[in-house]
Amino acid sequence: MPFPDTQDHLARRVGVIADDLTGACDSGIEFVPWAPSVLVQVSPDSPEPAAGDRAVVVHNTQSRNLSSQDAYDTVFRTTRQVISSGAAVIFKKVDSALRGNFGAEIAAVMDAAKASVAFILPAIPEAGRETIGGVQHIDGVPIAESFYARDFEHPVCESSVLRRAESGSERKAGLIPLADVRAGRTAEIAAKLQQSGCQLIVVDAESAEDLRRAVAALAGQAQHSLFVGCQGLAKALAAHFGSSEEHQADFERLAGPMLCVCGTFHPQSRRQLQAAAESGAIVRLEVNADDMAGGRRTERSLNKVVQCFAQNLRGGKHVAVCLSCQPERLSPELCERAFRFLSELSRRVLETVPVSALFLTGGETAYSVCQALGVHTMKLHARIAPLVVASRVVGGPCDGMVIVTKGGSIGPDDLLCTICGSHSKET
Length: 427
What we know:
Strand content: 15-25%
Helix content: 25-40%
Structural class: alpha/beta
């Protein structure tokens, strides 16, 4: 699977495989400037998007919360699908906090693609994610000492990218330190590591320039290999293919009110909702965990929220729903009930009153709501803030609807205040 020369990049296809929907969008958007279209396949069970020879298709496997074996099998099948569709380059999107089936999914892509080496660069400098000495940091703190150490589904107890990459695989990992990246020795060290038997090569980076240097050095020797990383790497790959322009969108007022659905418990998303509510930019409702257990109580709660939202939306007000739950009560079972509740709520609201956009926070939230609405394909439109992406639904009952996605930890406190009063222009 040779990496294409920059001279013929527009005639070659890139296949992107992501483990959750928000990551699929925030990485895929970086390819927009040089591809005529970037399409996201929302689910591995969704029909393959109709794409031209120069289009980029982002395949979301939604495998972060699967068992290791199920994740391996899903990613393996998806990789074979990507290869059969003619992709010349595979970019595997992973979680910047090293959550999920990190090593197993890399192994699945390598096995399916018969790749001899994987270059792993999970830094996202503009979001405070850095890889230094092979250790992943967020805002200067090792991942295993951050908020993600308390993630109730995937508590992060390992900050070493090398050890996470080796988990679920018998392959050996090696490191290209930051000093060598900046000294222009990336290709040299990569060759030595491969000669010593390393097939998983982690590359340090703490800036966008570090990522660009690494990609430029590794692209030339990427025969039968793949790139593994996050939005930062996607941006560097896009720049290597000939586009270094920013993707910041222009803004204009929304044509109407927006429905915001927040299913994440990350404190940053809570701060964004609180700031928007306190500023009067949005009407926020919190749903108690006990109201999502099912039965008549859940039905009454759904009806109450739908009526409240319909009234406010008809009055031209943006609305948001989030979950209220004590941290000690959080569990995978509770989250499943919450996603079902939020998905059904979204479906009923949209059946009752039109909205100008749907704002979805959190990968599982975005996926669950899209599934409930019958959304199979999204065309990425614009990056309206770092790692915050606007897209349009392609086909189905929601054809043309604007959907904005973002991860739970992403964005400044005033993000929702800004987006509630604006949206990206059509290109």
